[in-house]
Write a structure and sequence with these properties.
Elements (H helix, E strand, L loop, with lengths): L1 H5 L1 H23 L7 H29 L6 H29 L5
Helix pairs in contact: 2-3, 2-4, 3-4
Length: about 110
C-alpha cells in the first residue's frame, strides 16, 4: 500500500477508473428506482449515500495526485479529473433541483 500511494500516475489512473465505474453503476442503479421491489429501495437507501460520498471524494483525490505526475500525461489526467468533477457536480445539482425545488419532479 505504501508503494501504491507513492506512485502518482497509478493512483491518478485508478481514481479515474474507479470514478467512471462507480458513476456508471450509480446511473444503472437509478434505473431500478422505478421498480416496486422493496429490496431495491432498501439497498438504494444504503448504497446511494455511500456512492455519492465516493463520487465526491474520489475525483478530487485523483485530481490532487495528477499534479504530482511527470510527463505528457499530466495535463490529460488533470483535464479528465476536472471533467469527472464537473459531471458529478452537474448530476448532483440536477438531482437536488428536481428533488427539492422543481414542482413537477418525479
Amino acid at each position: 500500500m505504501k508503494t501504491f500511494f507513492k506512485n502518482a500516475p497509478k493512483v491518478s489512473f485508478t481514481s479515474l477508473l474507479a470514478t467512471i465505474i462507480i458513476f456508471l453503476a450509480f446511473v444503472g442503479f437509478l434505473n431500478f428506482a422505478s421498480s416496486d421491489a422493496r429490496i431495491i429501495h432498501v439497498i438504494g437507501k444504503i448504497l446511494i449515500p455511500i456512492m455519492l460520498i465516493i463520487l465526491m471524494l474520489n475525483p478530487v483525490v485523483g485530481f490532487i495526485y495528477s499534479f504530482y505526475m511527470k510527463g505528457k500525461m499530466k495535463i490529460v489526467m488533470i483535464l479528465l479529473h476536472l471533467i469527472c468533477i464537473c459531471t458529478v457536480s452537474f448530476f448532483a445539482f440536477i438531482g437536488l433541483m428536481f428533488r427539492y425545488f422543481v414542482p413537477f419532479s418525479p
